[in-house]
Amino acid sequence: MRDNQNLQRTMTSRHIMMMALGGAIGAGLFKGSSSAIDMAGPSVVIAYLIGGIILLFIMQGLAEMAVQNNKARTFRDLVQSHLGKYPAYFLDWIYWKMWVLNIAAEAVVSAIFLQYWFPQYPIWFLTLLVSVLVTVVNLLSVKVFAETEYWLALIKISVIILFILAGVLLLFVSFGSHEAVGFSNLTEHDGFFPNGSVGLITAMLVVIYSYGGTEIIGVTLAETKNPEKVVPKAVRSTLTRIIAFYIFPFFIIVSLIPWNEVNGVQESPFVMVFKMIGIPGADHIMNAVILLAIISSMNSGLYGSSRVLYTQAVDGRLPKVFAKLSKRKVPVYAILTCTSSLYVGVIISLVAGSKTFDYLMGSLGYTVLFIWLIIGLAHVKSRRNSFEVNSYHVKWFPYTTWFAIIALLLILVGVIFTTSFIITSITLAIYLLITLTYFFKRHQIQ
């Protein structure tokens, strides 16, 4: 395409690092925390540690492939060069499906949190406001989007750090009517593994869903300055922070609060801990933080899904209108198309009621599993082709990547046997539809 129709490389290391954090630290942490604890009890900490290690190994492989192929625009380009057209096509569309469903679900959830302050306004109206806000930010320019996402993610991270400090204080210091509990809650209520290995495996779907979004780094390649240097740096720093911001908070929650009391209340475990320390207006503070977290995740999701449509159109797989850029160098029609899913999501969510988030979380968990598996397999295959060992590379290859692949396959088997049949069936139907469209269009795909 002509130069004036190319995306601009205006994103820096701090931008994509915060974008990955913004995508991963969202509803999965704040809203999914109760579900994960209810499934696994205190052993949820082990589940998030395992998930974090798998994520580390998969993202290292993604960074290595990005360095070896500095012409890649998204991770579809990385995968196609090693695994072929179908895995790349499948990856592209399940990734698009993941974010479209996610932003649709989170638009409604954000409206529910807004209604906490504005009960006089209906859900649809508040959802519309959030949807328009996120759309405008994405339409302005990549730099405006990246800066917005940077500051939204920074606010979330600051509050999580405050939460960790407050939790440590509550664990070891007695004051007023509060008595330091130490680590007694980790074993007193039916042990560290109250629901056994089944509970741990079941929680892994929530864990994988929660970490999902970090791989958005692989969608920023065409708009990142010096991706061969920036991506490895962002991967290293992002993973350290994500693991810390999940494992530490969950360890504090299950240490302070008996695990069997977490899921039985309406408020978030994060609100419960802030109330324990006596912070005035803790419910309002956390409501605002969770709202920002969800909007931040929607922001990243709209970016990721629109870039999938853009690259598909550039390659002739979709109508060229989706490749059209505005004066600010953003794919305006691709963004607007993905935004339309927000309003479809409103209708679906109103019909499905409170089960919407649970159903979507299950389906999205499957999707993240497959995305990571495809990236891992592509990394294994990439080493069989030309490889420059002097640049960034995974030191313990192939052990780390194969560990991640085998672990993901074992989790997938466990999840199939422990997840709702409805969630599995819906997900399988979507995957079959994507596969059928590929075979109908395979002669048109470059």
Automatic annotation (TrEMBL):
Location in the cell: Cell membrane
Domain (Amino acid permease/ SLC12A): residue spans on this chain: 15-439
Transmembrane segments: 45-67, 99-118, 124-146, 153-177, 197-222, 243-260, 330-353, 359-378, 399-416, 422-440
Any one Gene Ontology cellular component term annotated for this protein: plasma membrane
Coiled coil: none
Biological-process GO terms, alphabetical: amino acid transport; transmembrane transport
Pfam families cross-referenced by the UniProt entry: AA_permease (PF00324)
Predominant place of localization: membrane
Keywords: Amino-acid transport, Membrane, Transmembrane, Transmembrane helix, Transport
Bilayer topology: Multi-pass membrane protein
Protein name: Amino acid permease
Organism encoding this protein: Priestia endophytica
Classification of source organism: Bacteria, Bacillati, Bacillota, Bacilli, Bacillales
